[in-house]
Amino acid sequence: MENRIVPKSIERIVELIESQANILTTTGTGGGTFDDFEASYKKQDRELRSALNSLGMRPPFPWRSLWEWHGYYKQNLPTYAERRTCILDLRNKAEDQLENLATSSGVSSPEPSFTSAVVRLSLQEAERQIGQGHPLSAVDRVHTAIHGHLRLLCGEEGITFANDASVTALMKLLRKYHPALTTSSPYGGEIGKVLNAMSSILNELNTIRNNGSMAHPNENLLGEAEAMLAVNAGRTILGYLDAKLSAPVAEPFTN
Q1: What residue stretches are annotated with the Abortive infection protein-like C-terminal domain (predicted)?
Q2: If both were cysteines, with which of 111, 152, 174, 194 could 178 make a disulfide (CB 3.0 to 4.6 Å apart)?
Q3: What would the CATH number be for the domain defined by 117-245?
């Protein structure tokens, strides 16, 4: 992979892939005995599979033990050159997938077309934290961005809200009074359920931010995968609101 900042979890996965590739190549080309590497290979295999599963990826090397690898190459890869090529291709394919994942970092943070400098700075800081491998710190930044953006949207529409209104309360006000969210549609019932789910997500993000992120001193912090789930949920909501509320208000739907 090229030299640049990637999430630490991905860096660790790359280390495991390269270590396993070296073990498979070494044992498949007469460079060492299976007993020398078997325990290490199996331990790395378990860690690698768990890490890749959290990213929705399959392990690059299907063999759970070196003896399985031995059986495969004896039957399918008669020469050392073929074995080296096989492992290299599998390694490169996996690292290319990880490279794409590191570049995208999940759902990209949308920058609303109309918002405040505080919101923009919060989103930029969230992206920086994710890029440096700190998604847990990004949870608070994304929450701040959502909170600030909802307050701005309510204010621009003349919707009154309390100074201490939560993200959930602000979302309810927008749903009730903003014309872009109250306009009927042929799938109004279904969209209403989606918006209800969004409100629930915002409520849970508020709890996670207060009790499981770096926003306050907490003993029980989110795992990295859960932090990215929270961040991506917040990003999705921001993207939807920006697309919906910046579009022209549609005429009421009639049959």
Answers
A1: 172-241
A2: 174
A3: 1.20.120
